[in-house]
Amino acid sequence: MLTKEEYIKLYEKYIAGHCSAEELSQLQDYQDKFQLKETRWDERTMGDKAAVKARLYARLHKEMQTDKEDQPVYWQSMRKWLGYAAAAIILVIGGLYWSSVENVPKPFGEGSQAIVIEPGGDKAVLVLDDGTEVLLNELHLGNVTINGKVWANKAGEGELHYGAMSEEEIRYHTIRTPRGGQYQVTLADGTKIWLNASSSIRFPTAFIGTERLVEIEGEVFFDVQKDTGKPFVVKSDNQEITVLGTQFNVMAYPDEEGVKTSLIEGKVAVDIAGSSYMLKPGERSVYDKTKRQVTKETFDPEEILAWQEGYFMFNEESIEHVMRKIARWYDVEVEYKGNMKGKLFSGTVSRFGQVDEVLDMLELTGTVTFKIEGRRILVMG
Q1: Which residue in 135, 144, 275, 335 has its CB near the most CB atoms, within 10 A?
Q2: Number of structural domains the chain divides into
Q3: How far apart are the two ends of the chain, measured CA to CA in Å?
Q4: Which residue numbers delimit the FecR protein domain (predicted)?
Q5: Within-domain flag for 224
Q6: Is residue 73 included in any domain, yes or no?
């Protein structure tokens, strides 16, 4: 059976029209592989367990019986099940783990929405130290030349590489992703970074002196090139992180109640409000900006790697936190009506389906409903 990563790659190959007959057969076989298993259930926050199960099974049965007109039976099946992958590879809603290729694109709610809200993609702005702004997604592949000077290389769509530069050419650049954007950057020392939506990093075009200093906002994943003689320092909201060579993720959005630094491998020192905290792999620091308190906790690495690999992963998160992630990626506004207290969601859903596909999955729990008006989502409890 295909792994999740293999399935995603094969699905993308299918969308591009490059699948062989054997690969199409693999995708066809995958459609029947799903299982339902239970985890901890809290009826107060998750709703009636039997009712949720019934909705899930009814939804699956209905979609399996729906055929596309004017298509051969084989391609009806392929399109249906391959469409499912756009919304969920492994879905966990309200305590039910549903491992499936699930959900076909369709109008959301009672009627079709006037605007199709597409997912985000590879786009970012490069800001030079003189304020000049360059839309990276509009540049051709190859050297990035501005005012006759080569600053970097666009190695691929959504990927920028900086190389070695002479000391007199060093400048400070900023790369900023908008809502609905993501980007990958390789700094001059070989450190790789991934910017999530609505994030930024300010960095020198070359590193000199005794440390490698960058400043960030939003969510950024780092794979730091090791250099024992020159620590890598990351400044973000109310904290400073010092590493030599490691992989870690920092989430420091202004609209979030906390700043989270999650360590995947190696070790880091996190300085927050005058105190220092050492993290081991699998640990993260959480700075509560309201209480001005710091805690350490363990986490699932898949939760941190999820957004880079193309999916949302919710882990008993409030509906407000879930919707902030959705709002940043789909560039939408969110409003609430009703009581949202105690509504927790856990799940793994593709970031590359239309927004109504993700909302439809959350709605299956029976704890919330949604209404889409233009680029505004109304969440009703």
Answers
A1: 144
A2: 3
A3: 39
A4: 174-268
A5: no
A6: yes
In a domain, 11, yes or no: yes
Q: Whole domain around residue 240: which residue ranges?
A: 232-299
Query: Residue 49 is which amino acid?
Result: K
Residue 283 lies in a domain: yes
Q: Which residues contact residue 353 at a Cβ distance below 8 angstroms, ignoring those fewer than 6 apart?
A: 86, 87, 103, 105, 119
Last residue of a domain, one of 282, 299, 316: 299
Here the tokens at position 158 are 């959504």
When pLDDT is cut at 50, 70 and 90, the band that residue 120 belongs to is: very high
Question: Is 141:177 a contact under the CB 8 Å cutoff?
Answer: no
Q: Write out pLDDT tens, residues 160-184.
A: 999 877 666 788 999 999 999 999 9
User: CA-CA distances (angstroms) from residue 59 to 63, 74, 75, 356, 359?
Assistant: 6, 21, 21, 15, 14
Amino acid, single-letter form, for residue 259: V
Q: In this structure, what token pair is assigned to residue 118?
A: 């597409």
Question: Per residue in 325-365, pLDDT tens?
Answer: 999 999 999 999 998 888 888 888 889 888 988 898 888 87
Output the pTM of the full model: 0.73
Are 193 and 236 members of one domain?
no
